[in-house]
Specification:
The chain is mostly helical. About 80% of the residues lie in helices and about 0% in strands. The protein is elongated and about 65 Å long. InterPro entries: ATPase_inh_sub_z, ATPase_inh_sub_z_sf.
Length: about 110
């Protein structure tokens, strides 16, 4: 019975690590896409840092990426940046890959 218990604990540990990694990738991606948007809006370095943190916080409003997309799109359009939904979604995908790469390199 201990072999089964060991396997169960191993699967639970792997699941916990995978969930933690997914959370960290999403948070890093949101920070990176916030920096991308801030550059498009010509924000100062201090404003860029604050904006990137605000984008990370926006992800906690609802499940999925729609809350982040809504924030980015609204802020970019309000700043006079010509951007559409597809461009923001593409930036999210690109920054997700970059976030995963950065986290893999740091481990």
């Amino acid at each position: 019975m201990t072999t089964f218990d060991d396997r169960e604990r191993a699967f639970e540990a792997k699941y916990a690590r995978d969930e933690d990694m997914a959370f960290r990738v999403t948070a890093r991606r949101n920070r990176l896409v916030g920096q991308w948007a801030a550059a498009k809006m010509n924000l100062t370095p201090e404003e860029t840092d604050a904006y990137a943190k605000a984008v990370v916080q926006a992800d906690f409003e609802e499940a999925g990426d729609e809350d982040v997309i809504r924030k980015l799109l609204g802020d970019l359009l309000a700043a006079g940046v010509e951007v559409d939904d597809a461009t923001v979604r593409r930036a999210l995908q690109e920054q997700s890959a970059e976030a995963r790469r950065q986290l893999m390199e740091s481990e």
